[in-house]
Amino acid sequence: MTVQSGVKQSQTLLADELRARLRGKAKPVGSLGRLEDLAVQIGLIGGSTSPDLGIAKILVFAGDHGITAEGVTAYPSVVTREIAKFVLAGTAGVNVLARAAGVGVELVDAGMLEPLPPHDLLLDRRIASGTKNARREPAMSIEECAAALEAGRAIDAHLGAENVGIVGYGEIGIGNTSAAGLVAHALTGLGLKSLVGPGAGTPALGLDHKYQVLSDTIDRAAIAPSTSEKRTFEVLRQFGGFEIVMMAGAMTAAAAAGRVIVVDGFISTAGAIAAEALVPGTIDNCVFAHCSAEPGHAALLKHLSVKPLLELEMRLGEGSGAALAIPIIRAAELMLREMADLPGEHPE
Ligand SMILES: Cc1cc2ncn([C@H]3O[C@H](COP(=O)(O)O)[C@@H](O)[C@H]3O)c2cc1C
Ligand SMILES: O=C(O)c1cccnc1
Asked: Does the record bear Oxidoreductase in its keywords (predicted)?
């Protein structure tokens, strides 16, 4: 038996044990619905029928995008920095929702236009002052892309020491629905049209213009066929942004370390798709928090054959959906660990 098939077999055994455990709980069989499927998933991630996932945290990766020069967003890049400051002050949307969930939030500067002053909740992992304009040239150099992936993996390494087992991946970056759309299109093969939406707001030049710019960007990049890993790297390098690439690197390491990856909205899902393309199997650790109102998000979730936990028509990003989903994940964990068993036989 190969190591891989051995691992698969023990995962199947554990899944059976988890399902038996859930059947034996003090409830009608199956009555906790999709919470039971979630419990099986986190039991498999935690490697136990009574997993202890430790602390939850949300990381907000921030970066700026050169492609904003092409009129693809309704807001100027300075807004990235404004929101980043609110995240540090605890007053951004994600902070408020995370507070309701009792979850801490940290900001990762992956490459905003300008640095922020040092702060306890700020991880300075700046690769550059924003990406280049991908409509005209690659968003980043080979070295920058490799450094962003590595910085992401290194961020995850610290989480183990802090006993963080549930990580929400949020982002801020004016222009990043364009970068995410490009990355997702290139990695899934889904039609670009289905992945172009208003983002933070319809740009003044309209959605057809945004589509045209992104279509031109794909033509300009002319990504050649290659091995999956090389091509994924080139897709990330060509389209960016630093926050998406760093997030993807962090997710690959989180999966390898057995953490629950809480994927947020459209951009975070593009990051997860990149992570899966880099390290197949990463997606097994992903819990999809919600379906964003950004139209391309439903298309991506359908492509991945995953069902998100929530659908609240939110389209903020930042990790806002992840914040709301974390208590549900915690509930599934505690249900496995603390809920009583009903003695006797249980109907099938
Ligand atoms: C005030 C404000 C707060 C935000 N928080 C997250 N986003 C979200 O919108 C941006 C992406 O949309 P686009 O590609 O259309 O620029 C990202 O910053 C994303 O996190 C925000 C956007 C704005 C304007
Ligand atoms: O789905 C998201 O995460 C999203 C949608 C629009 C703008 N920013 C983020």
From this structure: no
Say which CATH number the domain at 250 has: 3.40.50.10210
1 band by pLDDT with thresholds 50, 70 and 90: low
pTM, 2 dp: 0.98
**Dist CA 84 CA 150 (whole Å):** 22
Per-residue model confidence as pLDDT tens digits over 66-125: 999 999 999 999 999 999 999 999 999 999 999 999 999 999 999 999 999 999 999 999
CB-based contact 114:64 (threshold 8 Å):
no
Pocket test for ligand 2, best of 177, 263, 301 (most atoms within 8 A of CB): 177
Annotated active-site residue 318? The verdict is yes
Tell whether ligand 1 has an atom less than 6 A from the beta carbon of residue 243. no
Q: Is 73 in the pocket of ligand 1 (CB under 6 A)?
A: yes
Answer whether residue 168 is part of any domain: yes
For residue 30, what are the domain limits?
Answer: 3-51
Catalytic annotation, pick one of 318, 333, 338, 348:
318
Q: Following DSSP, what letter does each residue of 207-255 receive, concatenated?
A: HHHHHHHHHHHHHHH-PPP--HHHHHHHHHHHH--HHHHHHHHHHHHHH
Can you tell me whether residue 312 is helix, strand or coil? coil
Number of independent structural domains in the chain: 2
Say yes or no: CB of residue 271 within 6 Å of ligand 1.
Answer: no
pLDDT at position 344: 83
Q: Is residue 28 part of a domain?
A: yes
Do residue 80 and residue 23 come from a single domain? no
Q: Find out whether 344 and 26 touch, Cβ atoms under 8 Å.
A: no
Residue 46 and residue 112 share a domain = no
Residue 346 pLDDT > 90, yes or no? no
Residues 42 and 61 in one domain: no
Q: Are residues 44 and 126 in the same domain?
A: no
Which pLDDT value is given to residue 63? 99
